[in-house]
Amino acid sequence: MSKQVPLFIDGQFVQSESERWIPVTNPATQEVIAQVPCATDAEMERAIASAAKAFETWKETPVSERARLMLRYQALLKEHHDEIATILSEETGKTFEDAKGDVFRGIEVVEHACNIATLSMGETMENVARKIDSYSYTQPLGVCVGITPFNFPAMIPLWMFPMAIACGNTFILKPSEQDPNTPTRLAELFVEAGAPEGVLQVVHGSKEQVDTLLTHPETQAISFVGSVAVGEYIYKTGTDHLKRVQAFAGAKNHMVVMPDAQKNQMINNLVGASAGAAGQRCMAISVAVFVGESREWIPEIQEALSKVRPGAWNDPEAAYGPQINPQAKDRILSFIEAGKKEGAECLLDGSNCKVEGYPDGNWVGPTLFRGVTTDMSIYKEEIFGPVLCCIEVDTLEEAIALVNDNPYGNGTSIFTASGAAARKYQHEIKVGQVGINVPVPVPLPFFSFTGWRKSFYGDQHAYGKQAVKFYTETKTVTARWFEDDISTGANMTINLK
Ligand code: NAD
């Protein structure tokens, strides 16, 4: 019997009493490495009740104490960086270096959370009327919830619970059922850092458990990252139950290639951004838009991509790993077939990819289509695999119109030597993250990260700089001060009438 992933409820790692368990597999071998439970209704209730109880004391904990918890957590995450990356690469199939990057991006958010005092400070104004001052401060919401996807099992949980908890909330994490060992290790280290009981809970499962969290009267705010269909559902259901919801969803990211781009730099970046992490990144480039003569570089891109070799998590030479599961692989292969049927020219077909020693892995090789049009399914849908679609246009204006017509708006980039072209692109493009000669422009946590259009549902209180807004309420006090108080020797008195 493989290892059973515990639930983390009320400060204890406990064995679930569930009768429903989901196997967690190594995607390069199909070996079952663990079983993850679908938490029972009673276990969900216990987790929610414990988080609600812990909130009563955690919200009164001084801000410097909350910040110190994050400092200790940051140090532990750094100390265990390689160990977490090893767990992560085995269950996701990511290369070790990529797994380390996943953890590191999360550590950066914890570092950001260490600044919680400065980040959550309010504002004051004297004499808003004669002898009346106003000031505002932030207060935590209560029990917050995070529902996370498989593709960044360290970074995305760490986007959420450290900021929410640093703000004074308690948190229930429902990580992806496909790679739950990484978030479990994150929770263990949080306990080691000194997190009080009940401040963080980790429950497992899928739709049923998520529905409980979305509809329970005790939960206040829901953060979700995942696919578009589920993101829409989470946003609709959560807001129907009057929760605060931020839902980061899918993407179709374009790179615009201008004829004056630095060719070799562009090709290296495009290859990494489209095939890296097996295309399983919400910021992966899946469409390259060639303006004018830059289309002449497509054969060189084909050649560069043909040399990219996937491999197992323990192969230091591998460029990227397998798809997360056989269903994801089959879905990608059916898109490749559809692309051919719809009339795109398949310059490189990764459908029959084999990796020596790993016959059962979910391998898909780098795939390149030319002559793609906007009505084709390979253009319209998020494929979430190492498949790059090439589109050719004559002008930058056409490229901008094409990107803005696509329903998604997560990330985009332009490669050019022209400041004027870059400025025009950054100004006119309707996308949340823009890279100029940078292929995957993921901002650091002290900036905002948020998709536009179908890539994000919510009111933009997103990750990073804006997270404090999402995880707190602002209270504004207007106070009249009486001069009499001075003569009576009293301290300042707030008259709330
Ligand atoms: P997913 O939507 O299948 O799953 C995400 C989470 O939702 C998981 O915890 C899962 O258990 C839960 N879930 C699944 N089906 C559900 C349902 N019917 N009802 C309620 N909950 C449900 O996503 P995934 O396959 O794990 O992740 C890949 C997707 O995530 C891609 O679309 C990718 O673009 C997106 N993503 C977006 C961002 C971003 O910042 N915009 C970042 C990373 C990943």
Question: Could you walk me through the main structural features you see in this protein, from its secondary elements to its overall organization?
Answer:
The protein has 497 residues and is of the alpha/beta class. The protein contains 17 helices and 25 strands. Strands 15-16-17-14-13-19-20 form a seven-stranded mixed beta sheet, with helices on both faces. Strands 10-9-8-11-12-23 form a six-stranded mixed beta sheet, with helices on both faces. The chain starts with a strand and ends in a 9-residue tail after the last helix. The model has no long low-confidence stretch (mean pLDDT 95). Nicotinamide-adenine-dinucleotide binds next to α8 and α9.
Helical amount among residues, as a percent range? Answer: 25-40%
- Please, how many helices? 17
In terms of DSSP E residues, the strand content is 15-25%
> Spatial order of the strands in the main sheet?
15-16-17-14-13-19-20
List ligands, each type once: nicotinamide-adenine-dinucleotide
List the uncertain runs.
Answer: none
Which geometry do the CA atoms define? globular
Provide mean pLDDT, rounded: 95
Q: Kindly state the number of beta strands.
A: 25
Report the sheet with the most strands, covering strand number, pairing sense and barrel closure: 7 strands, mixed
Structural class: alpha/beta
Cα(first) to Cα(last) distance is: 66 Å
**Spatial extent as radius of gyration:** 25 Å
